[in-house]
Amino acid sequence: MKQSAESGSRASFSGRIGYVLAVAGSAIGLGNIWRFPYLVAKYGGGIFLLIYLVLTLTFGYTMIVSETALGRMTKRGPSGAFQAFDHSPLGKLGGWINAVIPMLIVPYYSVIGGWVLKYLVACFADGIDTLAQDDYFSAFLADSPQVVLYFVLFSVLVFAVILAGVRRGIEQISKVVMPVMLVLAVIVAVYSCTRPGALAGIAYFLVPNFRNFSLMTFAAAMGQMFYSLSIAMGILYTYGSYLKSDVDIEKSTGELEFFDTGVAVLAGLMIIPSVFSFFGGDIGKLHAGPSLTFITLPAVFASMPGGTFAAATFFLLFLLAALTSAISLLETSVNTFEDGLHISRGKASLIMAVIMAAVGLSSSLGFGVWSSVKLLGMDILDFFDFLTNSVMMPIAALATCLLILRKVGFAAIEAEVGQSSPFRRRPLYRFCLKYLAPVCLVIILASSIASALGLITM
Ligand code: PFF
């Protein structure tokens, strides 16, 4: 372990605030600002929000506490933590899958980070009216050299922070970026909610209407909670391993959930009321899916007074959110190589640079010069997103549940969490880990695979 300069034998966060800001920086990302609003819009508004909140406070809470406690207990990232308890091939597989997920995600996540960077630059260079043209997004994606250029620029920013280390890099940037991000989010949300006709959009988003409920609402809310809280991608193990033993895991988990859900709700308030207002309350327009942020939203901004400023503020906030999440994905990946191969941070970063180049470049080109290449009928980027989020992550989380139930035991987790203060939600934790989480995970896995095979539409 070569992080000794920072604190003893393993790098660490300076305290709870530094840790919570870094882990919230990881959780708050594309998932909150891009994915959450279009899913709420599509799957029933307030009812989706309600289910999402309940799942976050139960299933999500359980997974966060479990991964963080396992990381801190073993002082290892995911694969080391699994190996500490389970030497069987199943244990190896569980550790391996948790460790590989962020390595496969960070390249394509950085490609999307590059799109956001491009949109921020374009607000100034091309102006919001150009950005709002229908074919702007598709023309950009087809322009492979540009997509690659912005992917590389975004990746360079991420590597720069990683090479600066845990405390000097990740913690410092999170402490500066997170408050700025919150202020920007509030500004854009207030702006959007004060558009004429926005009130109906706010009501659609916040007031649950049980007639909008469907099984898909439940499956989509569950998948989103997973994605948004950075569960099952090794991150919470790794950040937990940098956590000092006097930090209250329960309290910091509550704070993480508060920040992550708060920004998702703010993103909903930024997007849904303004789209509602722009289209005169036409709910159908909210069903645009992934293109809501990159195509619909610029058109909405272009129609508003001060639209360029609002758009630039929004894309800056979006960029910062994507950046801090990509940092956590890369940190986890780099740490796996450092610990597993006993090599320096620099060498581990070099290995990740090669993986980033291979997966990221192919994902970038998949919309342009390689657009004829399809994997299971999907574009290359969509394929990596499907493979990690829909298949590998539910399996990785199931592996964590089984590790605790079969090898680690509740007592050890409870002792780890109870070090700084009594474990207050212990009964809830036990129930969720044993029953709720495994059932939810099987539902997520089954529904997303069925949807990819075209058996159901999500
Ligand atoms: N939780 C972060 C987000 O919501 O964007 C980070 C992340 C989630 C990265 C899911 C990648 C991913 F597949």
Overall SS class = mainly alpha
Run of helices and strands = HHHHHHHHHHHHHHHHHHH
Overall geometric form: globular
What is the helix fraction of residues, given as a range?
over 70%
Number of helices: 19
Average pLDDT for all residues: 89
Low-confidence stretches: 1-8
Query: How much β-strand is present in the residues?
Result: under 5%
Secondary structure tally: strands: 0
Return Rg in Å. 21 Å
Give the CA-CA distance, first to last residue: 44 Å
Largest sheet: none
Task: Describe the protein in words.
The protein has 458 residues and is mostly helical. It is 77% helix and 0% strand. Residues 1-8 have low confidence and may be disordered.
Strands, helices and their partners?
Layout: H1 16-27, H2 30-42, H3 46-74, H4 78-85, H5 89-125, H6 128-131, H7 136-142, H8 144-164, H9 166-193, H10 198-206, H11 215-228, H12 235-241, H13 249-278, H14 291-302, H15 307-341, H16 345-365, H17 380-408, H18 410-417, H19 426-452
Bound molecules: 4-fluoro-L-phenylalanine.
Write a concise synopsis of the structure shown.
This protein has 458 residues and is mainly α. The protein is built from 19 helices and no strands. Residues 27, 29-32, 105, 109, 227-228, 230, 325, 329, 388-389 line the site of 4-fluoro-L-phenylalanine.
